[in-house]
Amino acid sequence: MLDIKELNTTGDELNVLTVNYEGKPCYDIVFSNSFDQLNRLLSKFLLREKKVCIITDDTIAPLYLDEVKKVFAEVAGFVTEYVINAGEEYKTLRTVEGIYKHLIETKFDRNDYVIALGGGVVGDMTGYVAATYLRGISFIQIPTTLLSQVDSSIGGKTGVDLDGYKNMIGAFYQPKLVYINVSTLKSLNRRIFLSGMGEIIKHGIIKDKDYLNWLRSNNEKIIDRDPEILIQMIKNSCYIKKCVVENDPKEKGERALLNFGHTIGHSVEKLYNFEKYHGECVAIGMVVAAYISKNKGFISESEAESIKRIVSIFELPNSITGLKADSIIEVSKNDKKMDSKKIKFIVIKDIGEAIIDSSITDDDMRNAILEATEFEPIFGAAD
User: Would you state the pLDDT for residue 276?
Assistant: First the structure.
């Protein structure tokens, strides 16, 4: 587990991880407990002669838009905003088209910037807009949810959904900066905050057994949102993802390990009509993947159950209700992780060590899904 110094909240020293791309520094991830350090970080981008569009949603805008817009107004030549409807159902090309039109109407050119202020939906769409508007303009990530701070803001994956299928349209496109203000997590309701733990638990399962044990030991402080513990947790998860994406920036190999829990997770997310949060569906997917790993002989039953227990500790769902196994499997066949009609399924060889397995069959998935399914009791008169 990464040895992290305490966050300096009073001095000038920045708490930073630098992400490399093709062996060269690409962008910084900066950790703070306010927006106070953002101004001086922006100075290197020479925004005085440039335009900036802050893209956010109608949940985040009342909380942070004015504060962040004020910071950019001090350093940029022109600042505008575009507020979208909050929710996965609005992560579509239609929403992106509205953003394009706003940028055209305000005469944005290739030297200008778009800023993602919000959770994963805002970040993914803003990144996709940046990658495609005028064939590419610069963008900055300011993630405000736990899930976006430890996952979607890092690594350059951008995209939108199509007919409810997750991220089927997208591009790899790197931000210029990721600025993580952990104090934004205070505004999240308990369920949304804890949904981010799905991705964090995943990092421990696939890469760092000690980190997984640390999460288990510090669960109460994490749930209570202890600031020092949050900084350590978020930075450790960012470090794990940074290392993976540096080794494999365009998901030709190792980066696929980050999809642990996502094949089944994306399927149940769609079948639940996005009524469950992404991290909750990933948690369900991880339990199914753990059962597949157990049934293939990679991990023991007790290890599989330990994954189910840590999911429960953080109040995430660990079973499937109201869905048919065959429906989940069928939807998974439309997942972007398919390779020559085979799913690149991520399984656990050991806690802290994940592998890609393209031999997982429909029966393997069906058996694990049924094992993770909580059946409704049937009541009736006895014969």
Answer: 95
Structure tokens that stand for 192 in this block: 């949304």
**251 assigned to active site:** yes
Residue 340: per-residue pLDDT:
58
278 is catalytic: yes
Q: Which residues lie across from 15 on neighbouring strands?
A: 31
**How far, in Å, CA of 269 to CA of 266, rounded?**
5
Q: Please tell me whether residue 341 adopts helix, strand or coil conformation.
A: coil
| Alpha carbon distance 23, 18 (integer Å) | 11
DSSP codes of every residue in 5-32: PPP-SSSS--EEEEEEETTEEEEEEEEE
Give the pLDDT score at 380. 47
- Which among 88, 199, 269, 371 is annotated as catalytic? 199
Q: Which of the 8 DSSP states describes residue 88?
A: G
pLDDT, residue 1, reads 74
| pTM for the structure as a whole | 0.90
Is 203 among the catalytic positions?
no
Please say if 94 is a catalytic residue. Answer: no
Q: What is the pLDDT of residues 283-340, one digit of tens each?
A: 999 999 999 999 999 999 999 999 999 999 999 999 999 999 999 999 998 865 656 5
Does the annotation mark 255 as catalytic?
A: yes
Based on the residue annotation, tell me whether 241 is a catalytic residue of this protein. Answer: yes
pLDDT at 277: 95
User: Quick check: is 199 catalytic?
Assistant: yes
Residue from 91, 242, 262, 344 carrying the catalytic annotation: 262
Q: Which residues pair with 149 in a beta bridge?
A: none
| Angle made by CA atoms 231, 251, 148, in degrees to the nearest 5 | 30
| H-helix segments, the chain | 38-42, 66-73, 93-105, 120-132, 146-147, 190-195, 197-207, 209-217, 219-223, 227-247, 262-271, 278-295, 301-313, 325-332, 362-371
d(CA 115, CA 178) in angstroms, rounded, equals: 10
Write down the pLDDT at residue 252: 87
Question: What residue segments make up the domains of the chain, in order of their start?
Answer: 16-187, 190-374
Amino acid letter at 241? Answer: K
Positions in the chain whose pLDDT score sits under 50: 4-12, 378-383
- Specify whether 216 is catalytic: no
Q: Which CATH architecture has domain 16-187?
A: 3-Layer(aba) Sandwich (3.40)
Say which CATH superfamily domain 190-374 falls into. Answer: Dehydroquinate synthase-like - alpha domain (1.20.1090.10)
Sign of torsion over alpha carbons 179, 183, 186, 190? positive
